[in-house]
Amino acid sequence: MAEPGGTLDTLLIAGARPNFMKIAPLVRAFDEVGLSRRLVHTGQHYDRKMSDTFFEELGIPQPDLNLGVGSGSHVHQIAEVMRGLEAEMTANRPRVVVVVGDVNSTLAAALTANKLGIAVAHVEAGLRSFDRGMPEEINRILTDGIADWLYTTEPDANTNLAREGIAESRIRLVGNVMIDTLFHQLETARAGRPWARLGIEPQNYAVLTLHRPSNVDDPVRLESILRAIHALSLRIPVIFAIHPRTRSRIAQFGFDQRPDLTGFQAVEPLPYREALGLVDSARLVLTDSGGLQEEASVLRVPCLTLRENTERPITLETGANRLVGWDTRVILDAVDETLAGPVRVGQPPQLWDGKAALRIARHLREILP
Ligand code: UD1
Asked: Which domains does the chain have, with CATH numbers?
């Protein structure tokens, strides 16, 4: 926390579920090197299962402020975060605003800080899917365009930033803060044996997550994916942790009434440790999430990514990840190969070692006089 009447070093911004795993190690590392901080939750995600449980499990302190922006159009979300943060940054002027990832709250916070003349540090900078149809891709490009300090997870990200004309002196390859959290929680997650509660056996089930608008808002793609999942569920149990958006689309398209599109075991969005423990013991993961591709790669669990691109190409090069898109046949061919192959594959990328947040904190400590 900032000293009363003192100068505030950092303002950390958390907005949506994938941010929370990235914020937790930063808070710890900032405390360790003596950087004062305030933490704002924008409220982009607000359900207990999408937000509060993560703060509790990961030991993130109560936010100093929750803007409560909630759902709504992307314009509404971004505008409300900017209005709320302008007041916050004016009242408690930090030396640097630290944003993570690529959600709408990330861009909104970076833009607000920039407009107020406050430095911006972007954690997980430089990732590019080269698919401008993804809202996150636009958030990434714009956030990096105005960030003063850019912390990257993999060498490809540095190449992308150089191509966009961003000075090398502002970029630091530090590793992956989300993987800091993975290592911090792995032992407890394993001890929890979450698969036992679901009545399944380790290394004999698949974990599925699906929430990208390009997959779940399009009935043709969603049907094609669910058809493959149905076929897979006849071979091994499929645990489907359903995002609220996906649940409502499946009902809206009437897919929950179709025996050829069901068969998976649906569970609510999972708390972090339970999800980690389940993925760690899974035979394979199917996902369109960015973070899960990284987690599976570090755990060396085979991962089929239900997209045509990834902004995390290192997971394809060294990790356990493979792009399969949304075509039923292509997914099932990859499933066949995966189930015939080894249980653990690939290697964790370099610098994904649990110390990324500390590298960032030490760098900020150095540059903030
Ligand atoms: C957001 C991020 C995405 C990230 C994902 C993880 C953007 C552009 N997208 O997408 O990058 O991978 O979070 O979940 O920032 N909802 C609830 N409860 C909640 C939050 C959302 O029910 O706590 C429902 C609402 O109906 C909402 C919908 O989910 O309209 C979508 O939420 P939103 O925050 O707009 O985007 P996500 O799809 O979650």
From this structure: 8-176+352-367 (3.40.50.2000), 185-340 (3.40.50.2000)
Q: Greatest CA separation found in the chain? A: 63
Give the CA count within 13 Å in the CB-facing half-sphere of 203: 6
289 CA: nearest ligand 1 atom: 12
Note the pLDDT of residue 3: 43
Please give the model's pTM, rounded to 2 decimal places: 0.95
Cβ 332 vs Cβ 286: under 8 Å: no
Which of 41, 184, 211, 243 does the annotation list as catalytic? 211
* Ligand 1 atom 19, closest CA: 45
Confidence of residue 6 (pLDDT cuts 50, 70, 90): low
Query: Tokens 């943060």 map to which residue?
Result: 85
What is the overall mean pLDDT for the chain?
A: 96
Task: Show the ligand 1 pocket: residues with CB < 6 angstroms.
Answer: 16-18, 44-47, 50, 71, 103-104, 135-136, 211, 243-245
Residue nearest to atom 15 of ligand 1 (CA): 103
211 is a catalytic site residue: yes
DSSP codes of every residue in 263-319: -SEEEPPPPHHHHHHHHHT-SEEEE--HHHHHHHHHHT--EEESSS--S-THHHHTS
Of ligand 1's listed atoms, the one at least distance from the Cα of 139 is 8
Which atom number of ligand 1 is nearest to the Cα of residue 50? Answer: 23
Count CB-CB contacts under 10 A for residue 132.
Answer: 10
CA 45 – ligand 1 centroid, Å? 6
Are 160 and 128 in contact by the 8 Å Cβ rule? The answer is yes
Tokens of 243: 């995002």
Q: What DSSP character marks residue 255?
A: G
